[in-house]
Design a protein that fits this description.
Layout lengths: L1 H7 L6 H13 L5 E5 H6 L7 H8 L3 E3 L7 E6 L12 H18 L5 H12 L7 E5 H7 L4 H13 L3 E6 L5 E6 L24
Helix pairs in contact: 2-4, 2-5, 2-6, 5-6, 6-8
């Protein structure tokens, strides 16, 4: 889903809007409606700003619907291709809950959306057995709504907060390699559905 959103959303879409879109896409029902609990928004630190909603509405990716309950915000997603994206049903909800936990724990108190989304991306692309991952810096930047130059500081931040054990980027090839800190990775039985590309495989 992360890779799909990277291509479906405009290139200048912010990290906050990507983070919101990920939760909406994973929590929508078969009628492409999403009822997003306000507790989720608080966990993402997106409960005090309407900017990401306006971004996604401006790009015609979603449309807020009237009649929001006191404890949730409802919207209709307008990207019909989402219906054909894996996963489906309960797997999406489990993936949404996993992404919420991964984003909250990886940022270790940071309030910025970029380290939260970057943490989700890294864990989703990490082999659960080895705790290591391989990808492309440009591809990660696109999925996180950032410029490649911004990721250097973000990766350092995630290392300082205890998500990453180590990371290195090759300036010539653009390859990015990382190892998660012990105990922070995805367990082998947990959902792979946030990102369905094979772990450790170089992106096409």
């Amino acid at each position: 889903m992360l890779s799909y959103l990277a291509t479906a959303l405009p290139q200048d879409t912010s990290a906050a809007a990507h983070l919101l879109a990920l939760q909406c896409a994973l929590r929508m029902n078969t009628r492409m409606q999403v009822h997003l609990p306000k507790g989720v928004l608080r966990s993402l630190r997106l409960n005090t700003t309407s900017g990401p909603w306006h971004e996604l509405e401006h790009t015609r990716w979603l449309r807020p619907t009237p009649g929001n309950a006191a404890n949730e915000i409802t919207a209709e997603l307008l990207d019909v291709t989402l219906l054909s994206q894996a996963p489906a049903g309960p797997d999406r909800r489990r993936a949404a809950d996993w992404a919420l936990r991964a984003g909250s724990s990886s940022a270790a108190g940071a309030i910025e959306p970029l380290p939260r989304l970057a943490g989700v991306y890294l864990v989703a692309h990490t082999d659960p057995e080895s705790g290591s991952g391989l990808g492309e810096l440009d591809r990660m930047a696109r999925a996180c709504g950032a410029q490649p130059a911004e990721l250097t500081g973000t990766l350092d931040q995630l290392a300082a907060t205890g998500l990453l054990g180590s990371w290195q980027a090759c300036p010539d090839s653009g390859d990015l390699q990382w190892t998660l800190a012990r105990g922070t990775g995805r367990r082998s039985h947990e959902p792979r559905t946030v990102e369905d590309t094979p772990h450790l495989a170089a992106p096409r």
